[in-house]
Design a protein that fits this description.
about 0% strand; rod-shaped
Length: about 80
């Protein structure tokens, strides 16, 4: 990878790290919201849990993308 492409890949890593921080914030906020939902509101609890699961999967995907980009720039 030449310097120009490496620089662009590093910018992509920085952007993904920013996205990752936003996703982590959303997970924390959703978990806080979940704690405030009464157990008798099962449907809402289930939706909230599904949202958290989706956000955590997204977080994992972004982390993998960061790792792959960093690996590519190290070559």
């Amino acid at each position: 990878m030449n310097k120009s492409r490496r620089d662009k890949a590093n910018l992509a890593v920085q952007s993904l790290q920013s996205v990752l921080a936003t996703i982590e914030f959303l997970v924390d906020e959703e978990q806080s919201a979940l704690e405030g939902i009464p157990e008798n509101m099962y449907a809402r609890v289930e939706r909230c849990e599904d949202t958290i699961s989706d956000l955590e999967e997204t977080k994992t995907s972004v982390e993998e993308a960061i790792n792959r980009l960093e690996s590519a720039t190290d070559r």
